[in-house]
Amino acid sequence: MIRIDKYLADCGIGTRSEVKKYIKAKQITVNGALVSKPEEKVDETKDDICFKGHSITYEKYVYYLFHKPAGCVTAKQDNVHQTVMDYFPEDIRAKDIAPVGRLDLDTEGLLLLTNDGPLTHHLLSPAHHIPKTYYAILDKEVPEDAVEKFKDGVDIGDDKLTLPAELVILMVSKDEAGKKMYSAELTIHEGRFHQVKRMFEAVGCTVTYLKRLSMGSLTLGNLSKGEYRKLTADEIAALQK
Ligand code: URA
Fold it and tell me: Which amino acids are annotated catalytic?
């Protein structure tokens, strides 16, 4: 049994105080009877709970893939900058989702948000070495021996060398202004603070743009910057392996 206001908030109907207003407005019924108090208990496995006449199904865990733009912080709250949460409407935020891991303020790309604590723990656990692939633009040509160095592990000033990582140096191209552009894709299997930037610094390059393309089996695909979508059941199952 669970309190009706908690249940409805968990379902994403609104915040607890919004739910209270819906109860006052006689918009919630349980098995056809109007609910009068937010503390009323319901059996979420059996009762027919309706909001504005529509049956509600309980979704305990939710999973969103988000294309983080630069300029917002990977946090639930921040006093200075926009946060990734600002891109989600109140009914989704009410489900208590949180980012899985972090991307820097100026990093773009794939970010998973969920309220599934055990999965978050699984994905962030150093023991699992979930691969994460980044696309980076560098200030200069990446030395070819960086491929071998990254494979062996590099010293980025921590107690330990980085775990073996896969570097693919991309063809030199030209930006819109015709200036040479040096880029690479790097797959790492851990998540240290500023890890990608520090690894490139270790081979003499500065990252000028960074975007996460994938995390485990999840890829960003053609999701536009600032957009999010729900994960499919197959994507969720693959993450749990
Ligand atoms: N590595 C970094 O340096 N920054 C990120 O945002 C993610 C990985």
Answer: 104
